[in-house]
Amino acid sequence: MTKLSVNLNKVALLRNQRNIGIPSVLSAAATVIKAGAHGVTVHPRPDERHIRYRDAYELHDMLKEYPDTEFNIEGNPFTGKLMELLRDIRPDQATLVPDEPGQNTSDHGWDIKANAGRLRQVVNELKALGIRVSVFMDAAPGVERAAEVGVDRVELYTEPYAGAFRENKNLQQSIEQCAAAAGAAQDAGLGVNAGHDLNLNNLGKFLAGVKGVLEVSIGHALIAEALEMGLDKTVKAYLEILKAK
Prior knowledge:
- The chain is of the alpha/beta class.
- The protein has one domain (3-244): TIM Barrel (Alpha-Beta Barrel).
- The protein has helices at residues 9-15, 25-34, 53-62, 82-89, 112-128, 159-167, 171-187, 203-209, 220-229, 231-244; strands spanning 3-7, 39-42, 70-75, 93-96, 132-138, 153-157, 191-195, 213-218.
- Helix 6 (159-167) runs antiparallel to helix 7 and helix 9 (220-229) crosses helix 10 (231-244).
- The longest helix is centred in the middle third of the chain and has 17 residues, at 112-128.
């Protein structure tokens, strides 16, 4: 079964609009875990506009109460305090993402050829700390090159698929492209995660067409859907989709 990791960034974004501590990132984490989510994800950025570095430390402490829950920390290892954070916390997984400090959201994967040397150095350090390492990659030819820098997994950037689904345009082509990328990564010995704009409407079709996905990381859509359905029910709805695949 594909695992679900819930990205809590949007909870923090709403909290940061007022200085009164609600909604609570820790409470949201506890809710999704009790609802059955397999993990939680955070993606702190240097300006701390949503998840703050302090949140990651507090989640690390809280998750000691939930030893079966995976902690995934995303971010660019070459900006901000991400590497310091990873060294301190040693999460179950680090997902390295090539976003720039002022970027609104992640919108492309790594160019492995251009970044191989410095990525390899980071990956070696993180793996020596016992952290599973994934890199954010476009679902395109060449995804298997991530194996050259020693990572354990790739996370396929799924916004193009989500856009094709939303617009009902070139959908089958997009699914086949994602499936080919996943297959190439798996043939290179890499595990495959996926994330970005997956939601309750498009997740099932994605997993039906792209085999062997180990984990999906979902935040923006899940939190938006939870405004109508409630956080507990939304997580359980995702889990029903995952169980069906």
